[in-house]
Amino acid sequence: xxxxxxxxxxxxxxxxxxxxxxxxxxxxxxxxxxxxxxxxxxxxxxxxxxxxxxxxxxxxxxxxxxxxxxxxxxxxxxxxxxxxxxxxxxxxxxxxxxxxxxxxxxxxxxxxxxxxxxxxxxxxxxxxxxxxxxxxxxxxxxxxxxxxxxxxxxxxxxxxxxxxxxxxxxxxxxxxxxxxxxxxxxxxxxxxxxxxxxxxxxxxxxxxxxxxxxxxxxxxxxxxxxxxxxxxxxxxxxxxxxxxxxxxxxxxxxxxxxxxxxxxxxxxxxxxxxxxxxxxxxxxxxxxxxxxxxxxxxxxxxxxxxxxxxxxxxxxxxxxxxxxxxxxxxxxxxxxxxxxxxxxxxxxxxxxxxxxxxxxxxxxxxxxxxxxxxxxxxxxxxxxxxxxxxxxxx
Length: 394
Prior knowledge:
- The protein has 394 residues and is mainly β.
- Helix content is 2%, strand content 39%.
- The protein has 1 helix and 27 strands.
C-alpha cells in the first residue's frame, strides 16, 4: 500500500491491520495503521498492542478490578448468603448463591503471590463437594452502571464490541464460564475460557460483539452485568459465543468450582474496555478508585464525637446531618449503629433509644435519635456513631 501525504486533503493510504500496518519500521508486521472503525492502532509482530479507542478517558468500565478496595470486610473471609440480591464482598463485587455455605470469599485468600503488577485478588474457596442441580446458581459478578456503558450503544445498530481481560488462578483446570447480561435478564452472552495449569496465574481475553438487540440501561441503573460462573445449572447455562434472548449466567459444560471440596478460584486485573483489543490494565490512583467505590457504598467508623448535631423542636430527640464524600448513585439505604450524643449545655452524653436516618438524598441525610432527656430546642450536641453504612449498590 502507498501512504500519501497531501497538504490539502491530509494523509491517505493508512488503512491496515495488525499484520499489515501502513506505517512500518524494519519489520513489515510492526507499525501503525487505521482500522475499519477509523481508529488509530499500533501492532508489534502482527499483534495489536494499542488502540486509541481504549486509551483515553474511563477505559476500564469495571470498578475495583484489581481487588484493592474492601471497605466492608477489610480482608476478612465472608460466606455468601443464599439467593436474595447476593452478598457484596470486595467493593463493587457481588457473590450470588442459591445455596448457603457452599463457598467463602476473601481478599487475598490463601496468601498466594498475585500476578506481576498486582497486589490483591479476590479468592473463592469451595466449602464442600456440592453437586449442583439444574437450577443452582453460584456467581462472582459486577453490575456496571448504565452511565458508564452508555457509549457502547448496546441495543442499537451502532453497538460497539468490547474486550474482557482478567488474570485467573484455580486449583482446577478445564473450561470455565461466565456471561454478559442486561438488567431485564432477557439478553445474555455466555462465554468460556480455559484454565490450562492448576495453581498458576493465567491471563484470559474475551472479545464480544456488542448486542444490537434488547434493552440496555444507559442511566444510573444496571447497564451491563459481567458474571463469572462458579457453578451454574443447566437451566441457566447456554451455548457460548452468541447472544441469547434469555438469562444465561454461564456456558454449558463449564467447570463447577463448588463441586470440589477445597477448590480455589482466584481472580484479579478484571478489565472491560471498548474495542476488540485487550490493552494493559488501567491502574487508577487509589484515591480515585476508592471514590468510585464510594458512589455505591460508603462506610465510616467514628471513634470520637466528630459531628455537630442539634436538639430540634421535639426536645427529647437529637438530630445531626451527615454528608457523603461523593455523590452516590441514588438515595442510599443508611444504617447507623451505636450512637452517642454529647449535649454541650449540660456536658452529658447519652445514647437515647436508638438512631435512624431520614431525608436521604444522593448527597447526605439526617441522623435522628430519640428517647433522650429533655433539653432546650436549638441546643447543640456532638455525635459519635460506631458505624455508619450507606449503600446504593446496583
